[in-house]
C-alpha cells in the first residue's frame, strides 16, 4: 500500500466504508464514509466505552452511515484503549493523529466537527483544545483545526471521574493513576481544565443518564462560558445510549446542530 501524508492509502470495507490507517497498531485506523455528491462538511465520530478495549468503533458505524446518508463525510475513528496499548499518552496521541490524518484524505478540513459519546465525548472536547497545548504535550500542534464539538453525555470532568470512580477504575486505567498522583497529566487531559474551548462545544445529556453524571456537562458549560468560551447544554429525555441510536430524537439533536457548528 502507498503512504500518503503520513497515513496509509485506504482499502475498501463493507457498506462503502474505506479504512485508512494512521499507525501500525491494529487499533490505529478509521473508517471513512462519503456521501453521494459534494460533502456538506466533515464529521469525526469518536466512540465511547469508558476507554476500554472491549468497546470499539462498531458503536459509531450506525452514526457514520446516517451522517453519510445526510450528505456529510463521516470519519469513524478507532484508537488504542486503556490497558491495551493506549491510556496516557497513547490514546490521546491516537485521537490527535487520527484527526490530523484528515489532511491527507479527500475531505474538507476547513469544516470539521467532532462528535463523541461518553468517553468519546471526553476525547472530542479534549481535541478542540489541542491548539492550546504546550509544545511537546501529546496532541500539540494540530494539523487539522476543529470547527465545533458535540459531546454526547461526555466525561468532561476527568479528575472527578477518577475520584468518584464513575465507571469503576475507568479514568484511573486511562491515566495510569489518580489526579493527586498525576496533576500535570490531568491538566493536559481533562477538558474542564482547558477552558475556554477554541471552538463552540454543544453538550447533549439526559438527567436520566445512569452511566455519566449530568452534572459533568453542567459544570463544563459553566466553566467554559465563565472563561469566555462558547458552550451550551441541551437536556435530553433519553438515557445514555439513546444518544447513539439514529432513530431517536436524541440523535436528531446532533443532526440539527451540525450546520451551525460547521459554519464556525
From TrEMBL:
Superkingdom: Bacteria
GO MF annotations, alphabetized: hydrolase activity
Protein name, UniProt field: Alpha/beta hydrolase
Alphabetical list of Gene3D superfamilies matching this protein: alpha/beta hydrolase
Cited SUPFAM superfamilies: alpha/beta-Hydrolases
Keyword Hydrolase: yes
Key words, A-Z: Hydrolase
Amino acid at each position: 500500500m502507498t503512504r500518503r501524508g503520513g497515513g496509509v492509502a485506504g482499502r475498501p470495507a463493507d457498506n462503502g466504508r474505506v479504512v485508512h490507517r494512521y499507525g501500525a497498531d491494529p487499533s490505529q485506523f478509521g473508517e471513512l464514509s462519503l456521501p453521494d455528491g459534494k460533502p456538506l462538511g466533515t464529521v469525526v465520530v469518536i466512540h465511547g466505552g469508558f476507554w476500554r478495549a472491549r468497546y470499539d468503533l462498531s458503536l459509531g458505524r450506525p452514526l457514520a452511515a446516517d451522517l453519510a446518508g445526510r450528505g456529510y463525510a463521516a470519519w469513524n475513528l478507532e484508537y488504542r484503549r486503556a490497558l491495551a496499548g493506549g491510556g496516557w499518552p497513547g490514546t490521546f496521541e491516537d485521537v490527535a493523529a487520527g484527526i490530523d490524518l484528515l489532511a491527507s484524505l479527500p475531505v474538507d478540513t476547513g469544516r470539521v466537527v467532532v462528535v463523541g459519546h461518553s468517553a468519546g465525548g471526553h476525547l472530542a472536547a479534549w481535541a478542540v483544545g489541542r491548539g492550546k497545548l504546550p509544545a511537546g504535550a501529546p496532541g500539540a500542534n494540530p494539523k487539522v483545526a476543529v470547527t465545533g464539538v458535540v459531546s454526547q453525555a461526555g466525561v468532561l470532568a476527568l479528575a472527578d471521574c477518577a475520584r468518584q470512580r464513575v465507571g469503576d477504575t475507568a479514568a484511573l486505567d486511562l491515566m495510569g493513576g489518580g489526579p493527586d498522583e498525576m496533576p500535570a497529566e490531568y491538566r493536559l487531559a481533562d477538558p474542564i481544565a482547558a477552558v475556554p474551548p477554541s471552538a463552540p462545544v454543544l453538550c447533549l445529556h439526559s438527567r436520566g443518564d445512569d452511566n455519566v453524571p449530568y452534572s459533568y456537562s453542567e459544570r463544563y458549560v459553566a466553566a467554559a462560558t465563565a472563561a469566555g468560551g462558547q458552550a451550551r447544554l441541551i437536556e435530553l429525555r433519553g438515557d445514555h445510549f439513546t444518544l447513539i441510536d439514529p432513530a431517536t430524537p436524541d440523535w436528531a439533536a446532533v443532526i440539527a446542530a451540525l450546520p451551525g457548528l460547521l459554519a464556525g
